[in-house]
Amino acid sequence: MDKDKKGIALGLQDGQLAPCPKTPNCVSTEHHDLNRKMLPMSYQNMSIDEAKKILLEVIHSMPRVEIKEQSDDYIHVVYRTLVFEFFHDAEFHFDSADKHIHYRSATRVGFADFGSNKRWLQSIYARFIQRTYHITKEN
User: Fold this and answer.
1) Host H or E run for residue 124
2) Comparing C-alpha atoms, which of 41, 18, 34, 13 is closest to residue 104?
3) Three-class secondary structure of residue 103 per DSSP
4) DSSP for 16-66?
5) Percent of the chain's residues with pLDDT above 70
6) Known InterPro entries for this protein (predicted)?
C-alpha cells in the first residue's frame, strides 16, 4: 500500500482496494455506506486482458487524466476536475475470481466533493459497458 501526496492510502490491501476515509469525498465498489457504494464492472464474457484494454481505452478517452501505475490486476490514475482543477485518485482492481473490476475514487483535498467522484466513475462505467456491449454483440 502506498500513499499519495496527502497521505491517503492507495493500492491493494489483502486483495482489496484501500477503504475510503471517513470524509464524504470518496466512493468505492467496496464501501459499506450505500450512498458511497457503486456497482463493480463485470467482464464475464471476456478475458482480463481484453477488459483491461477496454478500460484503458476508456480512461484515455477522458480529459485531464494521467495513468500513474499499472500492473496485471491494478490501475491507478489521477484526474483533475474542470473548474478548480482539484486532483482525484482513482483506482481499479481486476478481481479474476469473480471477473469484476472494483474501483475507488477519492478527492485529495477538501471535505466533500459534491458528487464529482461518483459522476466521474459513472461516466467510466457507462463508457466501459457501452464498449463491452458492442464487442460481445459482435461475437
Assistant:
1) helix 116-138
2) 18
3) strand
4) EEPPPPSSSSEEETT-SSTTTB-PPEE-TTS-HHHHHHHHHHHHHHSTTEE
5) 88
6) DUF1499 (IPR010865)
Cell of 116: 464529482
C-alpha cell at 19: 477503504
pTM above 0.85, yes or no: yes
User: Which CATH number covers residue 77?
Assistant: 3.30.310.80
CA–CA distances in Å: residue 120 to residues 50, 55, 114: 22, 14, 12
CB 94 within 8 A of CB 73: yes
Contact by Cβ (8 Å): 105, 26: yes
Span 98-120, average pLDDT:
86
Mean pLDDT rounded to a whole number for the chain: 87
Q: Are 25 and 107 in contact (CB under 8 A)?
A: yes
What is the extent of the structural domain holding 68? 2-138
Give bridge partners of residue 2 from the DSSP assignment: 10
* Residues 128, 38 contacting (CB under 8 angstroms): no
